[in-house]
């Protein structure tokens, strides 16, 4: 189940109808997926936490008198002796607190996703779209004519992945029009309109290359999948 539902039943019905209508133009099969996010990004969360911990240790090395004096004023009182063991223990506690604090802060999703590098988001969305395509559309049609439209909300990214027969005839750059049509609506919060626009564009792109035949059957589900 998706962690958040973005569309109503009516929206789902509209998108399914758009897929059915687009598939009347060609033998292509269109699959639509709407994802809340494409990855948990735990590795990125850990990396930022480790970086904060390392920076804390660097600060302790650069200005030790400030931090040792601060500790003395707050906890130790007068006459405290700083042994190597005590300094190492303080450094370990300081680093652990920084690590834990930054790690916990990133459970607030707006901050977590703001800290993920754009290139990482793009790569993870692409990888997730490819996996979804292989599971749900690749080589599951008679003529290898499946197309996946994949939209990932948290990352603000989308992918269109085509099966081998389509990829052999349609230049990948052609899908840009469908992407732009979708994202123009999605940026304004009209997700269903965006998915329908992308479906219409994909159907129009497929029609000249893969015209519908009289014996064509619907091989993949028309319904939108939310994950």
Poorly predicted runs of 5 or more residues? none
What value does the average pLDDT take? 87
Kindly give the count of domains: 2
Rg, Å, rounded: 26 Å
Quickly count the helices.
Answer: 9
Strand residue content:
5-15%
CATH class of the largest domain: Alpha Beta
How many angstroms separate the termini? Answer: 6 Å
- Order of strands across the widest beta sheet? 3-2-1-4
CATH topology of the largest domain: Diaminopimelate Epimerase, Chain A, domain 1
Shape: elongated
Class of secondary structure makeup: alpha/beta
Second CATH tier, the architecture of the largest domain = Roll
- What is the helix content? 55-70%
Q: How many beta-strand runs? A: 4
SSE succession: HEHHHHHEEHHHE
Largest sheet: 4 strands, mixed
């Amino acid at each position: 189940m998706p962690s958040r539902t973005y569309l109503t039943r009516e929206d789902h019905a509209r998108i399914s109808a758009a897929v059915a209508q687009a598939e009347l133009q060609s033998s292509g099969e269109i699959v639509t997926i709407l994802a809340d996010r494409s990855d948990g990004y735990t590795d990125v969360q850990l990396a930022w936490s480790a970086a904060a911990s390392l920076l804390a240790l660097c600060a302790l090395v650069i200005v030790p008198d400030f931090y040792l004096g601060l500790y003395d004023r707050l906890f130790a009182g007068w006459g405290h002796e700083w042994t190597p063991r005590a300094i190492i223990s303080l450094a370990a506690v300081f680093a652990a607190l920084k690590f834990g604090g930054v790690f916990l802060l990133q459970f607030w999703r707006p901050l977590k996703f703001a800290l993920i590098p754009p290139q990482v988001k793009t790569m993870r969305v692409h990888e997730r779209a490819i996996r979804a395509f292989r599971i749900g559309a690749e080589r599951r049609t008679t003529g290898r004519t499946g197309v996946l439209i994949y939209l990932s909300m948290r990352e603000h990214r989308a992918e269109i992945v085509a099966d081998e027969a389509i990829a052999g005839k349609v230049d990948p750059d052609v899908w840009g029009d469908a992407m732009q049509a979708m994202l123009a609506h999605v940026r304004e919060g009209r997700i269903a309109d965006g998915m329908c626009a992308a479906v219409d564009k994909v159907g129009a792109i497929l029609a000249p290359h893969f015209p519908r035949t009289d014996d064509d059957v619907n091989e993949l589900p028309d319904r939108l999948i939310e994950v």
